[in-house]
Amino acid sequence: MKRCEYACGSAEHLIARRQFLGVAGGVAAGSMLGGLGLFASPAAAAQLASDQKRVVVFNMHGGLSQLESWDPKPGTETGGPFRAIPTSVPGIHISELLPMTSQQMHHLCLVRGVNTSEDDHGKGAYMMTTGRREMPGADYPRLGAVFSKALTPEDSALPGHVIITPGGGGGRGNDSAYLGPRYSSIVLGNGNPPANTQRPESISETIDQQRNDFRRKVNERFLSRRRTAITDAYTYSYEQALRLMRERDAFDVSKEPAADQERYGQHDLGRHCLLARRLLEKGVTFIQVSHSNYDTHNENFNFHIEQLAEFDKAFSAFIADLAARGMLESTLVVVLSEFGRTPNINLFYGRDHWSKAWTVAMAGTKLPRGIAYGKTNEKGTEVVDGQVDHANLFHTYLQAVGVDSMGSFNVDGRELPIADPAAKPIEALLA
């Protein structure tokens, strides 16, 4: 593998930039049992049934610089070379590297007081996607698995947990922990349908149906005597593969109008955001779109010029389309990283890891629109108002789509809290 010269050299960054955090291998062998404990109220449960909530996470792998994006500090010794520009909300400014996104600020909610106090890539990513710190002997399901279990209808023809990343080819992730492999991610990429989802021309539809009928009969005979979580996972994977074959066109962005493809951008992120929009419209519950590698220890400013140009075009189009189609009311959008970047600029014109004062951007559902919650000091070195952490954010994501974050999953007769019971949501964003 080629070493990323601009990155920190950690295990997470020994993969080429465009392949960062690609397909995860294997299927978890966790329990298939258990269900969601409590929704916010019976009324909320009924609302979820009639107005299906969905979640999209933009994971800016490596550590997006808050100073070159959501919380610029121009004119200070830490601010760097870029200006802060006005947005569609008077009084809120963001980096000039996001000119198109600035015009969507009236849909966004910036959380500028994030302090997670963890500067390690792996641990930071774990915290931001599980709402907990890593602990020996414990593993927790990632955001996508939690939302898939809580929100995806049982009869959904499409998977409830999709990760879109360069190089993804339809493999299963290992990210659902004790919720079981049914809620593990399917990893897609390149704007194409999953591989091997087209019936070979040499096999007729009738023969294929007979083969699957025979497989089901053999499975049923075996399961009547030796049923386990692993055999259930095997059976479910086969049936889901058949459903994916029937819904294959849902994953094909080439079917979107050429004008939309141009508007989102002729690059991986543009295609992936268009695919995310398409999958939302088809009913997929949770989608994570990956953009990397923001680990800019070297040449931070040149890198952000290039990378945020892609993000600005694709993300602004995505938000504008969700708003125009009335989908923001039922869709939570989150832009996160594992941490931010240091206010200090190092001798390589880079910024290092910084988790003590950075920003997460959100939009949609119950969240207020056009606000910046929390504040950092003049140089961006610490939070001075509205400090929150990974656990507060995790609770807030859940509450924003109507799930009681203080509820629990019942797994093998054990009540397991959905989110960290020692934390609470950001009440100011849910009023």
Can you give a write-up of this model?
This protein is of the alpha/beta class. It has one domain: 3-Layer(aba) Sandwich (Alkaline Phosphatase, subunit A). Helix content is 30%, strand content 16%. It is built from ten helices and 18 strands. It has a nine-stranded mixed sheet, sandwiched between helices. A three-stranded antiparallel sheet has the order 1-17-18, with no helix packed on it. A two-stranded antiparallel ribbon has the order 3-4. β15 and β16 form a beta hairpin. It is globular. The N and C termini lie far apart (49 Å). About 8% of the residues have low confidence.
* Category from helices, strands and their pairing: alpha/beta
CATH hierarchy class name: Alpha Beta
How many distinct helices? 10
| Strands side by side in the biggest sheet | 7-8-6-9-2-10-13-5-14
Low-confidence stretches: 15-50
The termini sit apart by 49 Å
Task: Give the integer mean of the pLDDT values.
Answer: 86
Radius of gyration (Å): 22 Å
Per CATH, the architecture is 3-Layer(aba) Sandwich
* Residue share in helix: 25-40%
Order of helices and strands: EHEEEHEHHEEEHHHHEHEEEEEEEHEE
Question: What is the CATH fold-level name?
Answer: Alkaline Phosphatase, subunit A
Strand content: 15-25%
**Count of the separate structural domains:** 1
Short description:
The protein is an alpha/beta fold.
Q: What order do the helices and strands come in, and which of them pair?
A:
Layout: E1 35-36, H1 42-50, E2 54-60, E3 84-86, E4 93-95, H2 99-102, E5 108-114, H3 121-130, H4 143-151, E6 161-164, E7 169-172, E8 186-188, H5 205-226, H6 229-246, H7 258-264, H8 268-282, E9 286-291, H9 300-324, E10 331-336, E11 340-341, E12 353-354, E13 358-363, E14 371-373, E15 375-376, E16 383-385, H10 390-400, E17 408-411, E18 414-417
Parallel strand pairs: 2-9, 2-10, 5-14, 6-8, 6-9
Antiparallel strand pairs: 1-17, 3-4, 5-13, 7-8, 10-13, 11-12, 15-16, 17-18
Helix pairs in contact: 3-10, 7-8, 8-9
